[in-house]
Amino acid sequence: MRTVSTPAHADPDGVPLEAADDSAESTRRRVLELVASDGPVTAADLATCLGLTAAGVRRHLAQLEDDGTITVHAAPGVAPVRRGRPARAYVVTTVGQAELHDAYSDLAVQALRHLRAVGGDAAVTVFAAHRYDDLVERVGPRLASTDPAERAGQLAAALSEEGYAASVRPVAGATLVPIAQLCQGHCPVQHVAEEFPELCEAEARAFSELLGTHVQRLATIAGGAHACVTNLPLGTAHHATLGVAQHAPAEGTR
């Protein structure tokens, strides 16, 4: 019987090593994106989403953890599990966020520094307001529901299309007014917002206008958190029937 040898440049399954390396890199990138959008998330959850074995996903997670792009999430106030080994849940680190951020952030920082030097803080505030005016105009028509919870979900979907890896999660224990949290696992302007928080402030105002209700920003990636987290009251939205909410004049100072 003729024996077919595997080429030296192929893996045991006969797949060229270059193709195997590209596939592994692509999968790791997808794992990193999912940890950013869904974290804290376990290997089992990722395996289900990706259609891979938990062991295979854990290899990618181990590589990402060694690279410093993800870390195990330590939930405060959670009692230790008495029996069995608790599942490790992962979140993206600031290093991981840096891999996902826009390559032009350095140029944007330089431009905003120049704008501040020429026009002061007020000029940066106006710029940030105009940037999120554009976001409201793009996203507003996609928020068709008048139900606050559904509208929040539509906002998350629209933001994900814009590159924010957003999701909406219910908040347990909210009794007087139902509350959800808008979680953004990726911030396209993270490194710019680290120096110019006016961008984060204007973004929160845009969310308030789009949902027609007051929102509360709890954490930001630019501030060192693993995700931008915003509380969304799910009571009656005053402007929920509007495709695009009306804008208040931008503040002249920070």
Automatic annotation (TrEMBL):
<dbReference type="Pfam" id="PF12840">
    <property type="entry name" value="HTH_20"/>
</dbReference>
<dbReference type="InterPro" id="IPR050313">
    <property type="entry name" value="Carb_Metab_HTH_regulators"/>
</dbReference>
<dbReference type="InterPro" id="IPR036390">
    <property type="entry name" value="WH_DNA-bd_sf"/>
</dbReference>
<feature type="region of interest" description="Disordered">
    <location>
        <begin position="1"/>
        <end position="24"/>
    </location>
</feature>
<protein>
    <submittedName>
        <fullName>Winged helix-turn-helix transcriptional regulator</fullName>
    </submittedName>
</protein>
<dbReference type="InterPro" id="IPR011991">
    <property type="entry name" value="ArsR-like_HTH"/>
</dbReference>
<dbReference type="InterPro" id="IPR036388">
    <property type="entry name" value="WH-like_DNA-bd_sf"/>
</dbReference>
